[in-house]
Structure formats: structure tokens, C-alpha cells
Amino acid sequence: MRFKPWMAGLAVVFSLAAASARAENCPAKSTQMDDIIVALNEAPSCDRAMKVFEACEFGASGDVELGAIVEKKCERDFLARLKDPQKHVYQREMRVCDRKYRNQSGSMYVSFTAFCRAIVAQRYSHNAHKVAGSSPSR
User: Which domain holds residue 71?
Assistant: First the structure.
């Protein structure tokens, strides 16, 4: 499992380009943090949580809390089944996200990091579903 930084970068670019259009499609009751957190927690799957995250993102440091919810939801699909070497690879990929924008200033880079981490967790969730022979709910 190799981390492809260009995929995370592409996802961030797309998310920023469509942020204003998606803001009106946010499935939360409002665009207030508490309502978005409720929508993320109610999402039935990793993929649905990611869609809520993408639709309701702030593009700023508030995305850290939202991204952490997505991470945890996705990790339920795979983390307990990873062997130690696989867990170390996963943790290393998360650290890559953490380091990627660490020398950048501005809260949007904090958002980029949150999205990078959520994308890694989502990819691991997809891989776990492939191994199990099931498809993730989208």
C-alpha cells in the first residue's frame, strides 16, 4: 500500500474548487459545527461520512475535528484487523499527512492535513472491504 501524495493533493484541489457549490448541499441541519458533527456521527459508513465531510467542510482549522470523526468511522472497518506491521504502515501514512503541510502557514493547510488523513483512512476502509469481499456503503 503506497501513499500517493498526488491523489491527496488532487482531492484537496477539487474540494476547494467546488467548496462554494457544495456548501449548499451540506446534509447537516445547518452549517454550524455541532450540526455537522451530528450529521457525521449519523453517517452509516466511512464513505457517507467522507461525503458529509466534503460537503460541509470549512476549509480551515475546524476541519480537524470533522476529519477526526471521519477517521474514526473509517478505522472501525479495518483498524482492529490490522497486524502490527500493517498498523505501523498506516500510522506512517498518517504521519506523512501530518508532515506534508507543517511548514505552511494558514488554516487552510490544517484543513488539507485533515483531508489527507481522512483520505488515507477511507482508502484503508476500502481495502478492508475488498479483502472481506463486501462493498462499502456509499
Answer: 5-132
